[in-house]
Amino acid sequence: MTNTVGSLILQAIGSLERRRLADSQNDVARQAGIAHSTLSNIINGKKRATTETLRKLAPVLRIDLRELLDALAHDAQCDADAEASYDRRAELLLRSTPAEELERIIEQIRNEAPNDPALTRQLRTWLSRRR
């Protein structure tokens, strides 16, 4: 996941405070009225920031909200591009794999992940496109 927003927030925290980073993050989260875990997850790219969270963070970090929103849009576009690229690579891989091998893989997935019928359906869809 692309994390331009997290980088901007981390830079702003670093410029606001010269104390330990964890203390600075706690202070920023408290002042913005968000959970420290939310801020940490955004910075570490584990969670996508919401516009509401960015609206709360912008004045605390002294960052223009538009800059944070632009970074959020950039991250979303990069993630969409990466997902499309993954789909194209998967399609190429499936096209180059013999049908019998795909059937074997589907059966193995069904046995190892019986609670994920969506994955099996997706693989079967790809397989049917090849025929």
Structure notes:
- By secondary structure, the chain is an all-alpha fold.
- The protein has two domains: 4-84, 434 Repressor (Amino-terminal Domain) (Orthogonal Bundle), CATH 1.10.260; 97-130.
- It is 79% helix and 0% strand.
- The protein is built from seven helices and no strands.
- Helix 2 packs across helix 3 (36-43), helix 2 packs across helix 4 (51-61) and helix 4 (51-61) crosses helix 5.
- The longest helix has 32 residues, at 65-96.
- The two termini are 34 Å apart.
- The mean pLDDT is 79.
Q: CATH class of the largest domain, anyone?
A: Mainly Alpha
| Global outline | elongated
CATH third-level topology of the largest domain: 434 Repressor (Amino-terminal Domain)
Distance between the termini: 34 Å
Q: How much helical structure, as a percent, in the residues?
A: over 70%
Note the run of SSEs as H and E: HHHHHHH
| Biggest sheet record | none
Main structural class: mainly alpha
**DSSP summary: helix tally:** 7
Number of domains: 2
CATH superfamily placement of the largest domain = lambda repressor-like DNA-binding domains
- The strand count comes to 0
Task: Name the descriptors.
131 residues, mainly alpha, 434 Repressor (Amino-terminal Domain), 7 helices
Task: Lay out the secondary structure.
Blueprint: H1 4-16, H2 21-32, H3 36-43, H4 51-61, H5 65-96, H6 99-112, H7 117-130
Helix pairs in contact: 1-5, 2-3, 2-4, 4-5, 6-7
